[in-house]
Amino acid sequence: MNATRRCKVCASKGMRKESRYYCAYCNVGLCVTPCFKEYHIKSNVE
Predict the structure, then answer these.
(1) pTM, full prediction
(2) What residues contact 7, with CB distance under 8 A and at least 6 apart?
(3) How far apart are CA 8 and CA 24, in angstroms?
(4) 3-class DSSP assignment, residue 40
C-alpha cells in the first residue's frame, strides 16, 4: 500500500489534497493532472 502525500501545487493554492503519486526525482507529492506538469513547468522557469 502506498502512503499518501499532500500535493505541493494544491497546498500552495490553499487546498488540501492527498495523492499517492509523487515525483521520485524531486521527492514531492503531486496530483497526476494537472499538478505534475504545472509543478515541473514552473520549476524549470524559476
Answers:
(1) 0.78
(2) 15, 17, 18, 19, 29, 30, 31, 35
(3) 14
(4) helix
Per-residue confidence in pLDDT tens, the chain, 46 aa? 568 999 999 999 999 999 999 999 999 999 998 999 999 998 765 5
Angle at alpha carbon of residue 25, lines to 4 and 3, rounded to 5° = 15
d(CA 35, CA 8): 8
Domain total of the chain: 1
Cell 524559476, located at residue:
46
Range of the domain at 38: 5-42
DSSP state of 20: S
